[in-house]
Design a protein that fits this description.
138 residues, alpha+beta, Jelly Rolls, 5-stranded antiparallel beta sheet, 3-stranded antiparallel beta sheet, 4 helices, 30% helix, 37% strand
Length: 138
């Protein structure tokens, strides 16, 4: 059986980290499925989804990692072509990825104690994001 739900997440700024764990748990519970997987997909090319401990120091480390690997100070071809400044946002999103799949057993997500499901806003401005949650199982 398949259960699908879309949720809206409003981000505040570039490198906003939004914890979606409770919304994903609710979708799995509402599906009434006991065992399976849930796929969480961000619709958009300038955001990403990860699992990480939602702890301020670790989040700051992740932000610094992204800034070091793909800085926003380089003149990207995308920026030249479209006369904008979010080429780095697209590259960061492509590197990190827009979806994850998590198993669940007895209706409970198999997440570690300190593991949360996080949406990262990588665009240069606040956005309204649509997240597709597809629960599959029996």
């Amino acid at each position: 059986m398949i259960f699908n739900r879309n949720i809206e997440i409003h981000t505040k700024e570039e490198l906003d980290f939004v914890d979606m764990t409770s919304q994903i748990r609710t979708a799995v519970a509402d599906s009434e499925l006991k065992h399976g997987i849930v796929n969480v997909f961000a619709i958009g090319s300038t955001c990403a989804i990860i699992t990480i401990e939602n702890e301020e120091g670790l989040i700051d480390d992740f932000k610094e990692m992204l800034k070091n690997i793909i800085p926003n100070t380089i003149e990207y071809y995308h920026n030249k072509k479209w006369n904008d400044s979010n080429g780095h946002s697209h590259l960061r999103a492509s590197l990190v990825g827009q979806n994850i799949t998590i198993p669940f057993i007895d209706g409970e997500l198999l997440l570690g104690t300190w593991q949360q499901i996080i949406l990262i806003e990588l665009d240069i401005r606040p956005r309204q994001r649509i997240i597709s949650i597809m629960v599959m199982g029996d």
